[in-house]
Amino acid sequence: MKGFALALLACAGPVLAQVECPHASEVTAAHLLGLWRAEFTGQGHAGTLLLEKHALYAASVSGTINRNGDRSKLAGDVEDGEFTLEESADGVHIAATWLGEVVEGSCGREIRGTWKAEGDAKERTFVLRKD
Fold first, then answer.
1. Entry pTM
2. For residue 87, what pLDDT is reported?
3. N- to C-terminal Cα distance for the chain?
4. Burial readout 44-72 (b: 16 or more C-beta within 10 A, e: otherwise)
5. What phi, psi does 44 have (nearest 5°)?
6. Cα–Cα distances in Å, from 86 out to 2, 97, 111?
7. What is the CATH number of the domain that holds 39?
8. Is the pLDDT of residue 3 over 90?
9. What pLDDT does residue 71 have?
10. Confidence of residue 10 (pLDDT cuts 50, 70, 90)
11. Does the residue 2 lie in any domain?
C-alpha cells in the first residue's frame, strides 16, 4: 500500500507543479493578491503595493500603494499575461497608469512594464516583485 501512495504522489507531482507555477498567460487576479515591491529602473524602491480582491469585479484587484507614508488607491487586472493598473490620489481621477507583462517563469511573482503619470509624456520602467 505504501508503494501505491508513493506512485500516486509521483504522478501528482507534475500536476502540483503546474498549479503552483502558472505560465504568464495563466496568471489571474487571484495570483496578484498580496504585497508587492515596486522599483523604477535606475531609481530603486518606488513603493509597496497591497493588492486585494476588488469589491465589485471578481476578475480585478484593488488596493493601495504606499510611498513612504503617501498613499494612493489602485485598481486593475491581468489578462493573458498583460497587466493594467490605474492609480488615483483621490479615488476618483486617474493619476497614473501601470502597464506591463507578467514575466514568464516567475510563477506570477514578477511584472515588468511602464508607469506613466497623467499629463506627463515621460514613462518610467518598473518592476513589481511579490513579497
1. 0.83
2. 98
3. 40
4. eebbebbbeebeeeeebbbbebeeeeeeb
5. 75, -150
6. 52, 5, 15
7. 2.40.128.120
8. no
9. 97
10. low
11. no
In a domain, 95, yes or no: yes
Residue 26 grid cell? 495563466
Cα Dmax for the chain: 67
Q: What are the backbone angles phi and psi of residue 52, rounded to the nearest 5°?
A: -130, 175
pLDDT of residue 131: 79
| Domain that includes residue 34, residue range | 23-130
**CA-CA-CA-CA torsion sign (100, 28, 79, 53):** negative
* Residue whose entry in the numeric block shows the C-alpha cell 509597496: 48
When comparing pLDDT for 42 and 77, which is higher? Answer: 77
Residue 7 lies in a domain: no
The single residue listed with the C-alpha cell 476588488 is 54
For the segment 104-115, what is each residue's pLDDT rounded down to a tens digit?
A: 999 999 999 999
Residue 122 in any domain: the answer is yes
Q: What cell numbers appear for 15 in the block?
A: 500536476
What is the rounded radius of gyration, in angstroms, for the C-alpha atoms of the chain? 18
In the block, residue with C-alpha cell 488615483 = 88
Distance (Å, whole) CA 77 – CA 118: 19
Total count of domains within the chain: 1
